[in-house]
């Protein structure tokens, strides 16, 4: 049987280890990952190996040559011009694959029983068998669901936190029949998970998942790289050691000298031709490569030291990685999770702070303290982008230095000379971050259209009219007053796609920024008539005549927080009477309690002035809460249902788009008007995209995030919403209180349960497996529906916190209370069981 070893990866997230090495050649226990894979194949009598190469192909080819030294026969296929993707590079060598073959990823450490997997494949007459495993946190991987017979029914490549519906993941090892390659086009980039497997699923070809027992670690980032070494030393995975075991759990190579005063705790590995000096302390978990010199009195606490490194006297290394040929001089300290790139020098008494990465061939001066942390954010994310844009603590995570680098990374994904709009709210911290982003963008040759302090709906409206590549908006986070939120928009004004987010992250983490020459540095201009363009677009979509006749009186509370208060002028122009409260902008954001106090105050003002209604605007012009004529607040699910009712009354048979967790009152209202409801994932970008893609959409959104009017612009807009409400109330001759009283009575309840990141995938799989498939919806999270009824329960993992949210919805209050109680208990006890089980596993 032949195996295809996928060895083309460049290992972006392992930089700087992979600056001069392809990912499969990164050493684990002083042997390349690819060598451990070849040993595994050999153990299962697979000795014909075809390696597909792309990044630095000669490194792997020079090491393995024809494979005879390693007991296999090696051939190579190099993707010269462009990467062809995981499936494309296998299609490229289809003529060599005339019988059942195995595809294995060149960047994971595993000891799976391949013989058993192949037997399973043949026994089930499968066309494609995916080797699967269970992991605590599946967010980095492709998630798979199989039925009782292990036939694959569904999968999703690298889900966001809220999309996880199982903890069973694709390990990148497949057993395939040659005929499946006929489904793939030749010489075109394509991927097994994204292209081939969905096609086989659609064609109902027999495709199975073999859930393998044993160890598997995708060496995808630096934490995983260190963990894999420690697991291998602790014998959690069955790997071959390159050296002799000279005493219990101490492996030492040939011609190595260890001073008799050195103290070595085990397990530890020391390579060939090493020199370990007097009184050196080596803690358990340390891996030392070949040809390494360690000076007297050095202290090594679980570092991974590659071949040819030099460690000076009294140096301290703690759980770090020292790459090939690097030099750490006397008394220098390299701390936890730091990485020193190949051929770099750390000067005497210098310190590399935790998590800092030093690229190859750099020199750190003696005595310097290097603490520029290149990995931003917390370890749970390992990403820049969260649920909506880049967010973090103001001036702690989101600093000027960070913003400059983020601006350069974004600009580097665009063509030189492209234009980008930049806008913000009126807070000083947003101005600081915006100026830093502008500096980063200019440095890579991007021109700036600076909209300054502008409400976000205005920015989204003008972006498509300005011939720009995209836009950035910076503001204090709507839900967290100590956080900054940076949102990136495309040329249409929609939040950018996941693919573009990944591109920006790649440039940021790779430090892959271009530098413009002096004459190419970007320019900044301040476009005029931005407000006028918005007002013109705004006016076109309203019955201005109706507004003029309405003589409406509205009270608008800006909560000291909205830039460019354009609405009162517009309403004044249309002959409506707008009373404005709290329109100045505070330096600091309001707490939730203060906002609630202002909402109560707004209710009193509306009553006292006998106004038609009041509205509290927030999130820099995106969100709103209404107050009816009696001072009663309308928000959340009620506000969503009310808006849908008014819009569909004005546009019968229209389509509305709401997130998966919105109340079923929406469907009930839509039925009255022959309307259609589309449900999306619970994130703002998904809502925006669905509003643009689907025909005849008249409204999108929900009370929490605001409302989208796709004809105006792709984002949320509370200002246009208010004008539209006045228009609709006038034409429909009703008041807000009357409209509210006509809404269906639906009970909608939310409850939040703590759930560690590591248990989310297992919880979702448990829910999928314990409910009939016909009762489940897996748009986002797991929605369990009652047949013939609008009752349902949704379990939705939080995208950025270790939480899951339960949403219960029904016309029957008792059913809602009972269901929330029942599932809260089920989730809590499942999480407790997982936590009891976890330590036993480790």
| Strand segment count | 55
Low-confidence stretches: 373-382
Name of the CATH first level of the largest domain: Alpha Beta
Going across the major beta sheet, what is the strand order?
14-15-18-21-24-27-30-33
Gap between N and C termini, in Å? 35 Å
Output the CATH topology of the largest domain.
Spore Coat Polysaccharide Biosynthesis Protein SpsA, Chain A
Described by strand count, sense and barrel closure, the largest sheet is: 8 strands, mixed
CA radius of gyration: 30 Å
Which structural class do the helices and strands define? alpha/beta
Helix content: 25-40%
Task: Tell me which oligomeric state these chains represent.
Answer: single chain
Number of domains: 5
Strand content: 25-35%
Mean of residue pLDDT values:
88
CATH superfamily of the largest domain: Spore Coat Polysaccharide Biosynthesis Protein SpsA, Chain A
CATH arch. level architecture of the largest domain: Alpha-Beta Complex
DSSP helical segment count: 21
The gross shape turns out to be globular
Spell out the key features of this protein.
alpha/beta, Spore Coat Polysaccharide Biosynthesis Protein SpsA, Chain A, Alpha-D-Glucose-1,6-Bisphosphate, Chain A, domain 3, 5 domains, eight-stranded mixed β-sheet, 21 helices
Description of the molecule:
- The protein is α/β, with parallel strands linked by helices and 842 residues long.
- It folds into five domains: 2-218, Spore Coat Polysaccharide Biosynthesis Protein SpsA, Chain A (Alpha-Beta Complex); 241-370, UDP N-Acetylglucosamine Acyltransferase, domain 1 (3 Solenoid), CATH 2.160.10.10; 390-517, Alpha-D-Glucose-1,6-Bisphosphate, subunit A, domain 3 (Alpha-D-Glucose-1,6-Bisphosphate, Chain A, domain 3, 3-Layer(aba) Sandwich); 533-741, Alpha-D-Glucose-1,6-Bisphosphate, subunit A, domain 3 (Alpha-D-Glucose-1,6-Bisphosphate, Chain A, domain 3, 3-Layer(aba) Sandwich), CATH 3.40.120.10; 747-841, Alpha-D-phosphohexomutase, C-terminal domain (TATA-Binding Protein, 2-Layer Sandwich), CATH 3.30.310.
- It is 29% helix and 26% strand.
- The chain has 21 helices and 55 strands.
- The strands form eleven sheets. An eight-stranded mixed beta sheet has the order 14-15-18-21-24-27-30-33. Strands 5-4-1-6-11-8-12 form a seven-stranded mixed beta sheet, with helices on both faces. A seven-stranded parallel beta sheet has the order 16-19-22-25-28-31-34, with no helix packed on it.
- A hairpin with a 4-residue loop joins strand 52 and strand 53.
- Helix 7 packs across helix 8 and helix 12 packs across helix 18 (718-732).
- It is globular.
- The two termini are 35 Å apart.
- Keywords: Cytoplasm, Initiation factor, Isomerase, Nucleotidyltransferase, Phosphoprotein, Protein biosynthesis, Transferase.
- Residues 3-233 form the Nucleotidyl transferase domain.
- It holds the Pfam family PGM_PMM_II.
- One of its GO terms (biological process) is carbohydrate metabolic process.
- Its main location: cytoplasm.
């Amino acid at each position: 049987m032949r195996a295809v070893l996928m060895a083309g990866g460049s290992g972006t997230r392992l930089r700087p280890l992979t600056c001069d090495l392809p990912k499969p050649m990164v050493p684990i226990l002083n042997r390349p990952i690819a060598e451990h894979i070849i040993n595994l194949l050999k153990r299962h009598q697979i000795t014909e190996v075809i390696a597909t190469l792309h990044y630095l192909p000669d490194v792997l080819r020079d090491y393995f040559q024809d494979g005879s030294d390693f007991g296999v026969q090696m051939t190579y296929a190099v993707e010269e011009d462009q990467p062809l993707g995981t499936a494309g590079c296998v299609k490229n060598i289809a003529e060599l694959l005339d019988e059942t073959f195995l595809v294995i990823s060149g960047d994971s450490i595993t000891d799976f029983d391949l013989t058993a997997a192949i037997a399973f494949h043949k026994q089930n007459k499968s066309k494609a068998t995916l080797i699967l495993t269970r992991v605590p946190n599946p967010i980095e991987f492709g998630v798979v669901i199989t039925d009782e017979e292990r036939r694959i029914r569904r999968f999703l490549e690298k889900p966001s936190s809220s999309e996880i519906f199982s903890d069973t993941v694709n390990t990148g090892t497949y057993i395939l029949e040659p005929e499946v390659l006929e489904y793939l086009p030749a010489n075109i980039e394509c991927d097994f998970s994204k292209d081939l497997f969905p096609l086989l699923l659609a064609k109902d070809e027999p495709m199975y998942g073999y859930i393998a027992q044993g160890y598997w670690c995708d060496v995808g980032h630096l934490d995983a790289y260190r963990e894999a070494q420690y697991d291998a030393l602790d014998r959690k995975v069955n790997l071959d050691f390159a050296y002799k075991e000279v005493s219990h759990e101490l492996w030492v190579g040939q011609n190595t000298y260890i001073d008799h005063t050195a103290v070595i705790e085990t397990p530890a590995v020391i390579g060939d031709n090493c020199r370990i000096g007097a009184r050196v302390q080596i803690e358990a978990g340390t891996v030392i490569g070949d040809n390494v010199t360690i000076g007297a009195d050095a202290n090594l606490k679980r570092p991974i030291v590659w071949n040819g490194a030099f460690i000076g006297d009294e140096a301290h290394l703690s759980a770090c990685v020292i790459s090939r040929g690097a030099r750490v001089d006397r008394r220098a300290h390299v701390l936890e999770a730091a990485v020193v790139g190949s051929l770099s020098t750390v000067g005497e008494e210098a310190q590399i702070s935790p998590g800092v990465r030093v690229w190859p061939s750099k020199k750190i001066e003696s005595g310097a303290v290097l603490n520029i942390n290149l990995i931003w954010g917390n370890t749970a994310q390992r990403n820049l982008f969260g649920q909506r844009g880049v967010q973090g603590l103001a001036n702690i995570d989101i600093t000027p230095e960070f913003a400059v680098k983020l601006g350069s990374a974004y600009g580097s994904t665009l063509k030189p000379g492209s234009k980008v709009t930049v806008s913000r709210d009126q807070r000083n911290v947003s101005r600081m971050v915006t100026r830093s982003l502008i500096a980063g963008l200019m440095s890579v040759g991007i021109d700036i259209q600076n909209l300054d302090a502008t409400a976000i709906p205005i920015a989204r409206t003008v972006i498509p009219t300005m011939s720009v590549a995209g836009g950035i908006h910076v503001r204090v986070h709507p839900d967290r007053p100590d956080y900054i939120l940076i949102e990136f928009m495309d040329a249409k004004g929609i939040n950018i796609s996941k693919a573009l987010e990944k591109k920006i992250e790649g440039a940021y983490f790779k430090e892959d920024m271009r530098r413009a020459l002096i004459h190419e540095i970007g320019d900044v201009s301040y476009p005029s008539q931005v407000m006028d363009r918005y007002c013109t677009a705004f006016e076109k979509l309203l019955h201005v005549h109706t507004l003029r006749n309405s003589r409406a009186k509205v009270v608008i509370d800006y909560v000291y927080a909205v830039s460019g208060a354009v609405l009162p002028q517009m309403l004044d122009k249309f002959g409506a009477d707008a009373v404005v409260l709290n329109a100045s902008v505070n330096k600091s954001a309001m707490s939730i309690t203060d906002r609630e106090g202002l909402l109560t105050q707004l209710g009193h003002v509306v009553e006292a002035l006998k106004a038609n209604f009041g509205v509290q605007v927030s999130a820099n012009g995106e969100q709103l809460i209404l107050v009816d004529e009696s001072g009663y607040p309308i928000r959340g699910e009620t506000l969503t249902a009310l808006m849908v009712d008014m819009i569909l009354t004005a546009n019968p048979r229209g389509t509305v788009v709401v997130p998966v967790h919105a109340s079923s009152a929406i469907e009930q209202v839509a039925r009255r008007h022959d309307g259609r409801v589309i449900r999306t994932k619970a994130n703002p970008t998904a809502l925006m995209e669905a509003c643009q893609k689907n025909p005849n959409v008249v409204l999108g959104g929900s009370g929490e995030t605001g409302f989208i009017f796709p004809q105006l612009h792709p984002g949320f807009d509370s200002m246009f919403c208010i004008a539209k409400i006045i228009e609709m109330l006038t034409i429909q001759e009703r008041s807000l209180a009357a409209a509210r009283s006509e809404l269906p009575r639906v009970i909608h309840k939310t409850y939040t349960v703590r759930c560690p990141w590591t248990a989310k995938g297992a919880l979702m799989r448990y829910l999928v497996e314990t409910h009939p498939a016909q009762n489940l919806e897996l748009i986002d999270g797991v929605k369990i529906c009652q047949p013939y009824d609008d009752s349902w329960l949704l379990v939705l993992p939080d995208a950025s916190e270790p939480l899951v949210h339960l949403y219960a919805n029904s016309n029957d209050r008792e059913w809602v209370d009972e269901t929330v109680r029942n599932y809260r208990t089920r989730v809590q006890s499942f999480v407790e069981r997982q936590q009891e089980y976890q330590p036993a596993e480790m």
